[in-house]
Amino acid sequence: MTELSALQVAALVVAAVGVGFAKTAIGGVASVSVALFAAVLPARESTGALLPLLIVADVVAVSVYRQHANWPTLLRLFPSVAAGVVAGAVFVARVGDVGMRRTIGIILLVLVAVHLWQRWRKRDKDPESLRAEQHRRRHASAFVFGILAGFTTMVANSGGPVMSIYLLSAGMGMLGFLGTSAWFFFAVNVFKVPFSAGLNLITAESLLLNAWLVPAVLVGAFAGRAVIGRIDQSRFETLVLVFVVVSSLSLVR
Fold first, then answer.
1. To 10 degrees, the CA torsion angle through 203, 208, 211, 212?
2. What distance in Å separates the CA atoms of residue 193 and residue 197, rounded to the nearest whole number?
3. Directed axis angle between helix 71-94 and helix 127-156, to 10°?
4. Is there a domain that residue 77 lies in?
5. Domain of residue 100, residue span
6. Model confidence pLDDT, tens digit, residues 23-47
7. Is the pLDDT confidence value at 216 over 90?
8. What DSSP line would sit under the chain, residue for residue?
């Protein structure tokens, strides 16, 4: 903390508030937090510094939304996510900061484009045919998104946007979205800890920084809980996509 300027400290505090807010309200906000951490700290070190804060926020989110999780969706995702995390750990060990940022940003922008294209295609289809199409694609989609979610969350703590697009594409409601995301990221982020520690991304210095920032995470989490009841489903989906795009563009710069 002593090596950071006042502006950099302020940016990290804002990012920590965003982490908490994202877990209990608008998931896409976490992407902005990832971008802020990467702007203040080296990209590799920023992933390790952010991970414990994400876990703290995950614990709060699980305690609030634990009853709203869609467990069949989670069970379909976990095997491919584990494979994606391992692939991400290998990627982190071999690729530099710029390559990491740009790879994640490009993946996210492509996923947003695919999601918007799918929404456009659905406009003229009747509900019955849409349900049949979703059922046919469910397992293949879970495999692809699981791999991407595991990979992106390991590389840059950016699995949130991938999961956001997957859950929106599945037509999940707001509370189901939040509950499923809460359990998913709690499990995945805890699973990532040994990999991050083994890559020296989590250090005594990063944990000290975490200790300073935990109160800001809790402030954000309770603020998100207070406002989520005032947001309707349509606005919720729009806000998630907007934050995903903004954070993606900042990564590919």
1. -130
2. 6
3. 40
4. yes
5. 6-251
6. 888 876 777 788 788 888 887 788 8
7. yes
8. -TTS-HHHHHHHHHHHHHHHHHHHS-TTHHHHHHHHHHHHS-HHHHHHHHHHHHHHHHHHHHHHHGGG--HHHHHHHHHHHHHHHHHHHHHHHH--HHHHHHHHHHHHHHHHHHHHHHHHHHTTS-HHHHHHHHHHHHHHHHHHHHHHHHHHHHHHS-HHHHHHHHHHHTT--HHHHHHHHHHHHHHHHHHHHHHHHHTT-S-HHHHHHHHHHHHHHHHHHHHHHHHGGG--HHHHHHHHHHHHHHHHHHH--
- CA–CA gap between residue 27 and residue 39 (Å, rounded): 20
Going by C-alpha positions, the residue among 3, 26, 13 that lies closest to residue 174 is 26
136 in any annotated domain: yes
Q: How far is CA 105 from the centre of its chain?
A: 13
In this predicted structure, the answer to whether residue 128 has a pLDDT above a threshold of 60 is no
Q: Is position 139 within any domain?
A: yes
Residues 184 and 139: their CA atoms lie apart, in Å, by 17
Q: Which two tokens stand for residue 230?
A: 């005032």
* Domain total of the chain: 1
- pLDDT at residue 130, rounded to an integer: 47
Neighbours of 129 (CB within 10 A): 10
Crossing angle between the packed helical segments 71-94 and 174-198, to the nearest 10 degrees: 30
In a domain, 1, yes or no: no
